[in-house]
Amino acid sequence: MPEIRKNRAKQKLKNGETVMAVSCTDTDMVDFLGSSEAVDIIWIEMEHGEATWSQISDISRACDLWGMTSLVRVNNNDPWLVGRALDRGAQAVVVPHVNTKEEAERLVQGGKYTPEGSRGMFTSRQGLGVTDYVAKANDEILLLALIEDVVAVENLDEILTVDEVDCFMVVPGDLSQSMGPDYLGKPSHPDVEAVIESSMKKISAAGFATGSTAGDNNIERWVLAGGRMFLCSFQGYIESGLNNLKTKAKKLES
What we know:
By secondary structure, the protein is of the alpha/beta class. It is about 45% helix and about 15% strand. It has an eight-stranded parallel β-barrel with strand order 1-2-3-4-5-6-7-8, surrounded by six helices. α4 runs parallel beside α5.
């Protein structure tokens, strides 16, 4: 009988290694990204993006072929949403706006079987053919909580008592808005980045994986703050690469 599929991104985070995530719903592009060996997680966006429940199985199946971890961001921290994403075949779930200890516990409730949680009893596609899947699944499920509000930063000490969450990502968009109107639309404001940095250091010191959105402008700072999990835009690198190529060509025009 087959063994349960290992969650490579979860293991890398446990080892203190860098994990790179990109958002994508096109399975052909997932194949390309997998072949690059530069991506660890495919982020399936169901809060702000176009992903549907029916797509998760195919996207996660493509991830499985390349040893990447499929992660779904659900649009609300409801246990049944977390469990459903896992039932569809994803290996990881991230929930938005985890602002209290109780909300972190809700993520665990939907993402883990007993004794850690109370995920609904249903065999995921990841469990097909696996003996005693429900007894093994918790070890391979990756649960991530987004710290993206000032109130979450204020409650961080209590939130970090929920050991079953694997990673707490501190992300700038909504955090900047929650800091007041002066920061609206300014996710790279020095004050916002200072809050992200201090929060990541606290999370890392507590023994949890942490991270944020990242690019060339900030990834060094986040790594030095303890970050290992990074959501990146690969489209931007395609754009910059093509623009650089076009610039080189234009310089040679007669």
